[in-house]
Amino acid sequence: MTIGELSKATNISEYTLRYYEKKNLIIVNRDDIGRRCYVENDVEWIKFIQRLKETGMLLRDIEKYSQLRYKGDETMPERLSMLEKHRLYVLEQQKKWQEYLENLDSKITYYENSISDC
């Protein structure tokens, strides 16, 4: 799979994919003339990187996770620990956003009631 095909499969720009490679988030095989050759496993890995980013994991932590991933199965306990820690962070953020949502709902209800009373 070429970088263009991977870009379409993941909905991530070629520029971003090259950046991921530069930061060693992905290790890419190359053909005889140096073109990048991606495999289906790369698609899922890149989608996972995006989910980590979207849930607020810091780039340095994603880099560390990636390095561990490429070292192999012996790093699974450390990766599990990282994901468990990040899960707690996501739950904290979810709780915070729930509070924000409740506050917005309360304000919306206030305005709706105030408008209907007029």
Automatic annotation (TrEMBL):
Give the superkingdom in one word. Bacteria
Q: Which Pfam families match?
A: MerR_1
Question: Would the keyword DNA-binding turn up in this protein's UniProt record?
Answer: yes
Sorted alphabetically, the keyword list is: DNA-binding
Q: Which Gene3D superfamilies match?
A: 1.10.1660.10
What Gene Ontology molecular-function terms does this entry list?
DNA binding; DNA-binding transcription factor activity
Q: Which InterPro entries match?
A: DNA-bd_dom_put_sf, MerR-type_HTH_dom, MerR_fam
The question of whether rRNA processing is a record keyword is answered with no
**Residue ranges of the HTH merR-type domain?**
1-68
Q: Which SUPFAM superfamilies does the entry mention?
A: Putative DNA-binding domain (SSF46955)
Q: What is this protein called?
A: DNA-binding transcriptional regulator, MerR family
Q: Which organism is this entry from?
A: Hespellia stercorisuis DSM 15480
